[in-house]
Design brief:
Helices cover 31% and strands 19% of the residues. By secondary structure, it is an alpha+beta fold. Strands 1, 2, 3, 4, 5 and 6 form a six-stranded antiparallel beta sheet that branches. A hairpin with a 6-residue loop joins strand 4 and strand 5. Helix 4 (67-81) packs across helix 5.
């Protein structure tokens, strides 16, 4: 079966992040997790290597858009996927914000905690994502696929906004009335000489 194949060929990991050196913080998940669930642990060098070797395409994104626009797109993708949002930043005035949500597998509905971090870089916004299973030492590649699929949807959302958001056209210049042509001066007609043929002689 597919699950058996993945279990044999993929590493035993339950927590995947696009940034393994400084992964997005799962603060809400720390509160949500109960005894018997996986413990959220730091990324070790061994875990980093296993992830990079198995999932080289699980990488962050840099978008040439303001953080407020990217945050709106993240909200849209979260709503489209129907995930339970635990932390939704009320303001994106900060240079770094993090969304947190709970996603579930299609089969059996196993839960994973997700964090999506946005960093304002001035002329661009960098997005990192993390997905960690609540149960089981082996996620069978589920977390990496979730990250790659979400970011692919975000790519489309950002590209769509970039294309369809109209650029405000500059106002058209007001028409300039043509200048009236100067009137040409008409020269006075020369006076006709007086006819003195009938005058009496002096």
């Amino acid at each position: 079966s597919v699950a058996l194949y993945r279990g044999l060929t993929l590493p035993s990991l339950d927590d995947i992040s696009t940034d393994t050196d400084d992964p997005p913080v799962l603060s809400a998940a720390t509160v949500e997790r109960k005894p018997g669930m996986n413990v959220i642990e730091p990324f070790t060098p061994e875990r980093r290597k296993l992830q990079h070797d198995a999932y080289p395409t699980a990488t962050g994104r840099r978008y040439g858009a303001p953080i407020s626009q990217v945050a709106d797109s993240v909200n849209d993708v979260l709503d489209e996927r129907g995930w339970t949002v635990l932390v939704r930043p009320e303001s994106v005035e900060a240079t770094e914000v993090t969304f947190e949500a709970v996603a579930r597998t299609l089969v059996m509905g196993f839960a994973s905690d997700v964090a999506i971090r946005l960093i304002d870089e001035g002329n661009s916004t960098y997005v990192d994502m993390r997905s960690a299973s609540r149960y089981g030492a082996h996620d069978f590649g589920d977390n990496a696929r979730r990250i790659e699929a979400f970011l692919a949807d975000l790519d489309v959302e950002i590209a769509y906004l970039t294309v369809v958001v109209p650029v405000e056209e500059p106002p058209a210049p007001e028409p300039v009335a043509p200048k009236p042509e100067p009137e040409l001066a008409v020269p006075d007609e020369p006076a006709e000489p007086l006819d003195r043929s009938e005058d009496p002689p002096d």
